Amino acid sequence: MKIIIINGPNLNLLGKREPEIYGDETFEDFYFLLKKKYNTIELQYFQSNIEGEIISKLQETGFTYDGIILNAAAYTHTSIGIGDAVKAISTPVIEVHISNTFSRESFRHQSYISPNAKGVIIGFGLKSYELALKAFL
């Protein structure tokens, strides 16, 4: 099974950025443990702060991978382009968010990804990624 995690803007700052919301663990540390725990899965990781790079990665992997775990971060609420890319590909996408976006500012309640995602996992911290991975299994 081949799965990729695609993270959007500012998620490269996990462990430093707003630890009261996002925790104090870096994504790289979490990803290392996830790969170790699910070592029979070909798990890859991509992060970009640039919308077009995220769209390109969705298009690149969206016809050959078994699953995509996507945390588009702030682009979730603003990017019609990322939403359209999710709709255009055949690989199923699970949208994840570390925080409960519905307990935050009202602009975070809108997602351009959700209507085209296989499912949405919100608010379980970094565990959201593992829950998405288990959903693909």
TrEMBL record:
Protein role: Catalyzes a trans-dehydration via an enolate intermediate.
Designated name of the protein: 3-dehydroquinate dehydratase
Organism: Flavobacterium saliperosum
InterPro entries: DHquinase_II (IPR001874), DHquinase_II_CS (IPR018509), DHquinase_II_sf (IPR036441)
UniProt cross-references to HAMAP family, sorted A to Z: AroQ (MF_00169)
Keyword entries, A-Z: Amino-acid biosynthesis, Aromatic amino acid biosynthesis, Lyase
Family: Belongs to the type-II 3-dehydroquinase family.
Gene name of the record: aroQ
Protein EC: 4.2.1.10
Keyword Protease: no
Pfam (any one): DHquinase_II
GO biological process, one term: amino acid biosynthetic process
NCBIfam families, alphabetized: aroQ, PRK05395.1-2, PRK05395.1-3, PRK05395.1-4
